[in-house]
Structure formats: structure tokens, C-alpha cells
Write a structure and sequence with these properties.
The complex is a heterodimer of chains A (113) and B (109).
Chain A: E1 3-7, E2 10-13, E3 19-26, E4 32-38, E5 44-52, E6 55-58, E7 65-70, E8 73-78, E9 87-94, E10 103-104, E11 108-112
Parallel strand pairs in A: 2-11
Antiparallel strand pairs in A: 1-3, 3-8, 4-5, 4-9, 5-6, 7-8, 9-10, 9-11
Chain B: E1 3-5, E2 9-13, E3 18-25, E4 32-37, E5 44-49, E6 53-57, E7 60-65, E8 70-75, E9 84-91, E10 97-99, E11 103-108
Parallel strand pairs in B: 2-11
Antiparallel strand pairs in B: 1-3, 3-8, 4-5, 4-9, 6-7, 7-8, 9-10, 9-11
Classes of the chains: A mainly beta (113), B mainly beta (109).
Chain lengths: 113, 109
């Protein structure tokens, strides 16, 4: 069966520090991968998606970047965090882009102080 | 533009029925999804509608009217564990899911 894991689950970072969130999927090949952010009082916002290794699409301009170094690995990064980067970050995968169910990881709660 | 609207909060009584509405305006339509999200947890898939009509799955049903840009999620025989946020999401022409802000449902004894 397919599983998705992301880590760390919780982190508190100072403004200006770097960020790296990692997500891996097991039990499937060539998944479509996504990074979402859920800020307080706002809906899930799509940040990045990837349909293959090295292929990254950005949905909104921001302080973050994403990379897919391996088929089932998706990394969210920042060189310098801002206060507005605080939120609940969710990695997800799907078989079909947009037309199928999204399977979410456990989430990473980031607090920038 | 693209917009998905759903009520912010709802309250219902254990054992009752509740209907959560969702209206959407998107460029293109490839289906509508409902997800359940308990506090502090990731969303989990509940239902998918791509054609007009009602889809029933146990205590949960979801309805879609594409001409009206409207969907609802119907929860029957409410249980305390149904207290959660319910997210409406639409797959538009770009193929990616656009989520509403979610409806926080509180089930009271």
C-alpha cells in the first residue's frame, strides 16, 4: 500500500533562518507531488506541484522553493524565513493531476518567531 | 477569478442531519471534492463528484449541480467524532485542486 511521510512534524524557527521540510512517498511510482500551506483563517493554498523529477511548478510568488531530487522525494526550502511563512505545511500526492484523490502527509507546523 | 465559498462555522446536535453548502466559480471544472480535517491533522478524502446528482457513501452524501456551481455535503446520524472542518475543493482547468476555507462543524451532545 502507498504511504506518505513528511518531517519534521513541528518546528520553531527564528526570522531569517533557513528551512527544509522533506516528504517521501512509498509504494507508488511517478506520483504527482504537492506542497500546500494552511495559514490560520485561510484555506489550503497550493504552493508547488511536481509531475516528475526536476519538474517544479510554482503557484504563487513567495519566499519558498521546492525541489524533487528523486521520484518519490519532495523538499520545501527557504533561505530566509519570514514571519508570514508560519503555518501548517502539507505534502500530498496523487495519481492524476487534479482529477483524483489527494493523499496528504501528516503535516508540519512551522512557527516563525 | 476563482472562488469557493462555504460557511465558516456550523453547529449541530448529535444524531441530527447537517448540510454543508459550497458554491464555486472556477475557470473550467474537472470535479468537486470534499475532505474532512480534524484539528491539527491532515485532510482525508470523503467524496468526489464530477457529474450532477447525489453520491451516497454511508452516513455521508455529496450533491453537485454544475449549472449552479453548487455542491453540498450531507452528514446523517451525526456523531461526536464528526466534529471537524469540512473542505470543499474544485479541480479547475489547470488540473490542480482549489480549496475553500473550510467549514468548522461542532457536534453537541
Amino acid at each position: 500500500s502507498q504511504t506518505i511521510h513528511q518531517w519534521p512534524a513541528t518546528l520553531v524557527q527564528p526570522v531569517g533562518s533557513p528551512l527544509s521540510l522533506e516528504c517521501t512517498v512509498e509504494g507508488t511510482s511517478n506520483p504527482n507531488l504537492y506542497w500546500y500551506r494552511q495559514a490560520a483563517g485561510r484555506g489550503l493554498q497550493l504552493l508547488f506541484y511536481s509531475v516528475g523529477i526536476g519538474q517544479i511548478s510554482s503557484e504563487v510568488p513567495q519566499n519558498l522553493s521546492a525541489s524533487r531530487p528523486q521520484d518519490r522525494q519532495f523538499i520545501l526550502s527557504s533561505k530566509k524565513l519570514l514571519l508570514s511563512d508560519s503555518g501548517f505545511y502539507l505534502c500530498a500526492w496523487s495519481v492524476l493531476v487534479g482529477a483524483g484523490e489527494l493523499f496528504f502527509g501528516e503535516g508540519s507546523r512551522l512557527t516563525v518567531l | 477569478g476563482q472562488n469557493i465559498d462555504q460557511p465558516t462555522e456550523m453547529t449541530a446536535t448529535e444524531g441530527a442531519i447537517v448540510q454543508i453548502n459550497c458554491t464555486y466559480q472556477t475557470s473550467g471544472f474537472n470535479g468537486l471534492f470534499w475532505y474532512q480535517q480534524h484539528a491539527g491533522e491532515a485532510p482525508t478524502f470523503l467524496s468526489y463528484n464530477v457529474l450532477d446528482g447525489l453520491e451516497e457513501k454511508g452516513r455521508f452524501s455529496s450533491f453537485l449541480s454544475r449549472s449552479k456551481g453548487y455542491s453540498y455535503l450531507l452528514l446523517k446520524e451525526l456523531q461526536m467524532k464528526d466534529s471537524a472542518s469540512y473542505l470543499c475543493a474544485v479541480s479547475g482547468s489547470q488540473g490542480n485542486l482549489i480549496f475553500g476555507k473550510g467549514t468548522k462543524l461542532s457536534v453537541k451532545p
